[in-house]
Amino acid sequence: MPFRSMLYVPASNARAMRKAVDLDCDALILDLEDAVAPAAKAAARAALAGRDETGSPALVRINGLDTPWGDADLAALADIACAGVLVPKVGSPTDLDAVAARVDRPLWAMIETLAGVLAAAGICTHPRLEGVVMGTNDLARALGARDRPDRMPLMAALQTTLLAARAAGVRAIDGVCNALDDPERMRAECAQGRDMGFDGKSLIHPAQIAAANAAFAPDAAEIDRARRRIAAYQAAQDEGQGVAVVDGEIVEALHVATARETLALAEAVAAKEGR
Ligand SMILES: CC(C)(COP(=O)(O)OP(=O)(O)OC[C@H]1O[C@@H](n2cnc3c(N)ncnc32)[C@H](O)[C@@H]1OP(=O)(O)O)[C@@H](O)C(=O)NCCC(=O)NCCSC(=O)C[C@H](O)C(=O)O
Ligand SMILES: [Mg+2]
């Protein structure tokens, strides 16, 4: 399945929770953590109990086990239908062990602390991990970084974590764009995240879904080039050659493997969108 767009929905926001059911993001992150005020934690947790799984697959972001609410969140998961658990502020594989020992759902890790980035290789190879989500807000704070449209201060953390995720074969989701009233910045951040190799982007508002879905899916030109690369390489092989040339660029086996992945993603997106 595609992971182009993962929308945070504060579980304490009943209006947003109702809205989320009909949104076309690839996944939801039902948040019990930082988007929920301390006074609203118990009610937010209760709001998830007995939810049905209408709409996009949902991860539940729990509070850390080092907080007053983490234990109760884990206990509540027994009554919460979800596709997985998103663990915040993961700093080591043992942080995942503590959750894995108490829930049998797939785990995702927020990489949003300096320790988490430095331990990314060990975290990403955890046997229960399905993916990582970048927490660029917490990371920027921990770095003492200034906000920049080019996200230069965050690049080392983003690329280090992405390398670890790709090496471990798990999904990697880029951080949020806070600029709700700046669609150009959102577009640029999506393009940057896609260019780097992320699978998708985490979002904070439904208005951001379209940009992420567009950026992280192959476009018509990429689909056409993938098909032509596969065909040209097969023709070269039939003539006993190991290399083809398409649009003035060489095409070797690795390019064909990428082309097949491109077509597979395009098919998964088309299937999800009922095309
Ligand atoms: C930022 C918001 C508080 C703005 O909410 P609101 O003022 O209600 O926005 P709108 O009036 O434009 O809403 C229009 C409709 O859309 C619904 N809505 C808004 N946001 C969401 C959402 N996230 N999910 C689902 N639906 C949403 C409204 O209810 C309106 O619905 P309707 O009237 O029925 O049409 C709000 O967007 C918000 O709370 N966003 C989420 C913020 C959040 O989750 N933050 C935590 C994640 S960011 C982070 O820190 C990640 C990581 O940890 C890190 O460190 O980086
Ligand atoms: Mg955070």
TrEMBL record:
Give UniProt keywords alphabetically. Answer: Hydrolase, Magnesium, Metal-binding
Gene3D superfamilies (alphabetical): Phosphoenolpyruvate-binding domains (3.20.20.60)
What Gene Ontology terms describe what this protein does at the molecular function level?
hydrolase activity
User: Per its Swiss-Prot or TrEMBL entry, what cofactor is needed?
Assistant: Mg(2+)
Q: Which SUPFAM superfamilies match?
A: Phosphoenolpyruvate/pyruvate domain
Q: What is its EC number?
A: 3.1.2.30
Q: Cite the InterPro entries for this sequence.
A: Aldolase/citrate-lyase_domain (IPR005000), Citrate_lyase_beta/mcl1/mcl2 (IPR011206), Pyrv/PenolPyrv_kinase-like_dom (IPR015813), Pyrv_kinase-like_dom_sf (IPR040442)
Q: Using the record's annotation, list all stretches that form the HpcH/HpaI aldolase/citrate lyase domain.
A: 4-206
Output the Pfam families linked to this UniProt entry.
HpcH_HpaI
Q: Which family does it belong to?
A: Belongs to the HpcH/HpaI aldolase family.
Task: Please identify the protein, giving its name as recorded.
Answer: (3S)-malyl-CoA thioesterase
Give the organism the record lists.
Answer: Limimaricola variabilis
Q: Which classification does the entry list for the species?
A: Bacteria, Pseudomonadati, Pseudomonadota, Alphaproteobacteria, Rhodobacterales
